Amino acid sequence: MSLDFSRRLFLSLSVLLGAGSLALLGRGLLRYFSDSGAPEPPARFPVGTVPELRALKNPRKYHQGVWLVRDEGGWYALLNRCTHLGCQPALDPQARLLVCPCHGSRFDLQGRAVKGPALRPLARPALYLGPREEVWVDTKKEADPAFRLRL
Ligand code: FES
Predict the structure, then answer these.
(1) How many domains does the chain have?
(2) CB of residue 85 inside a 6 A radius of ligand 1
(3) What pTM, to 2 d.p., does this model score?
(4) Cys staple from 134: which of 31, 46, 100, 149, with CB 3.0 to 4.6 Å?
């Protein structure tokens, strides 16, 4: 009789502990997937005025994770997110390459992958002239690789 009671008590406690564990796990997963805690960076933001950009010679990175690059045709933007697994490449000014610190992918300043494992080019967010002679980036819109903003 007491053996039966102990077994029933043990099973009941096991079910309760299992259900509690599942509830905690579910709550943690829900919180993890619903809110990362970090605020979303803005999708559209100014990157400088026309005179400021005219004075720049080298590619320039902004806090929002965008490179501004100028070639003979004009200005364009590159999203600083490696197309392999999303790390942030850094500029090697001597080689004029963006080098990913995670697995070594390299991108030229056109954004083309010149060394893997990344195979796809860096994304090109839209770049446009806004009010008051400000240049803006919109990371929600993609620019054609041939696009250049002439200032
Ligand atoms: S994330 Fe850039 S090479 Fe892997």
Answers:
(1) 2
(2) yes
(3) 0.69
(4) 46
